[in-house]
User: Fold Glutathione S-transferase from Setaria italica.
Amino acid sequence: MAAAAGGGADGQLKVLGAWPSPFANRVRVALHLKGLEYENVEEDLTNKSELLLASNPVHKKVPVLLHGGRPVPESLLILEYLDDAFPAAGPTLLPADPYHRAVARFWAAYVDGKLHGVMVAALTGATEEERAAATADTFAALETLEGAFAECSGGKGFFAGDAPGYLDVAFGAFIGWLRAWDRITGVTLLDAGRIPLLAAWAERFAALDAAKGVIPEPEHIAEFAKVLQARAAAGASN
Assistant:
């Protein structure tokens, strides 16, 4: 799903991203769900383009959405922007009810602030003890999200109910990493015996047409993770 090269004044959409990034991939899934055409631009994060640096001069990170040449950085902000900028493109990601909107935002922030942080620590911790402690924290965060799913879904298939919404997209983009974890570390995170609701939800989300071709295959993530681990080890030894 890609438009002609652009991002100029005619309102074209362009995503500056990187295939392993769950933050970039959540933007792409959202665009697919809303039926919006865009150009996907893969960034080399070891040699960032001038366009990326100019578009996100504060954080210098992916993703950035360019809409008519105007940059919108930060993935969760981009999801909200898509709802606001394209109200006729459905489905709307955030719920209409103010309380449910606040709950969805809370748990999306938890995914980014807690789950992502402990997963990075479990992968790149300097010692085996640090990695083990972070792995335990990762399981605890997933169990917390299991409870959130039970509460938010109302017994339906997605956090948002019958169809995926803001929180599903925000968290669903991590499924590639969650699935690859046993290949990277030998530990299974999406354990149906431990978090059955999330394990079933992950299968359901990954099967969506909007997610196919966006969520990376586990073997590709595992290969990329080895590179990250090697960089972290080299940095720790210097």
About this structure: Residues 100 and 163 are 15 Å apart (CA to CA). DSSP finds nine helices and four strands in the chain.
